[in-house]
Design brief:
mainly alpha
């Protein structure tokens, strides 16, 4: 594994730890710019959990990138899988992380 991948994977793991500690709300795109009434509609604990898991998955994906660069077909499937997981987390952030009325 090259140094660049290791640095970026470490950054995402640090983000995951920050989210799991209950901090880092300002790092969540969209949440930090939302109005107070919009923030009241979101279960921030669930959103932090989602962001922590996604950060860990991203770190894992970054660690696998140096091994996928040998074959373009593997790169395509790796990117496709990562985008699918990201889409799933976007859906979860807009459903599971919303407060029930």
């Amino acid at each position: 594994m090259n140094t660049t991948s290791l640095v970026f994977a470490t950054i995402f793991l640090v983000f995951a730890v920050i989210f799991l500690m209950g901090k880092g709300d300002k790092l969540i795109a969209g949440y930090n710019t939302a109005s107070e009434e919009e923030k009241q509609k979101i279960d921030i604990k669930r959103l932090r959990i989602l962001m922590a898991i996604l950060s860990m998955i991203t770190a894992g994906y970054i660690c696998t990138l140096p091994y996928l660069d040998k074959d373009p077909k593997n790169q395509m499937w790796g990117l496709f899988a990562f985008l699918l997981v990201t889409l799933l987390f976007i859906i979860l952030a807009n459903t599971w992380a919303k407060k029930k009325k």
